[in-house]
Amino acid sequence: MLKKPKLIAFDLDYTLWPFWVDTHVDPPFRKAKNGQVVDAQSRKVKYYKEVPSVLKQLHNEGYVLAVASRTGEIDGANQLLKLFDWEKYFTYKEIYPGSKTTHFQRIKTKSGIDFSEMLFFDDEHRNKIDLNTIGVLMILVDDGVTQELIRKGLENFSEQYGSK
Length: 164
Description:
Elements: E1 7-10, E2 30-31, E3 37-38, H1 51-60, E4 64-69, H2 74-83, E5 90-95, H3 100-111, E6 118-122, H4 125-132, E7 137-140, H5 147-161
Enzyme class: hydrolase
Protein name: Magnesium-dependent phosphatase 1
Keywords: Hydrolase, Magnesium, Metal-binding, Protein phosphatase
């Protein structure tokens, strides 16, 4: 029997989309007539290919999903979540500058879910070091979230917490 996390959280920049929302694109964002999301310069704003199906699948499987992002472009990040129609998947959103430990303290307080029941996907190794101190398992993302990375993350979680 595999041990599963109660909550799966994601960073945004270089995890769900291939850019920093505060430097590589120009908010505000909008949907163009063709339905594509564009920035203030009418440049198409893309996300990693497998992200929509990953979020939908995890949500349908009953996982509680959260965002933990330290961007300073809070409005732009929230706007993209809404325009990509991903807002419906996230129960908790902690999007503001600061430490990931602060993000997860707030998620824990709001959700009642212990750190040892959380799995986090992020592209920054420094966050793994910080989160290890509080017991959140972080999986390093190299080139965006994929189905395969989620599978490996769930396996790692089960191995780490399965016997506890």
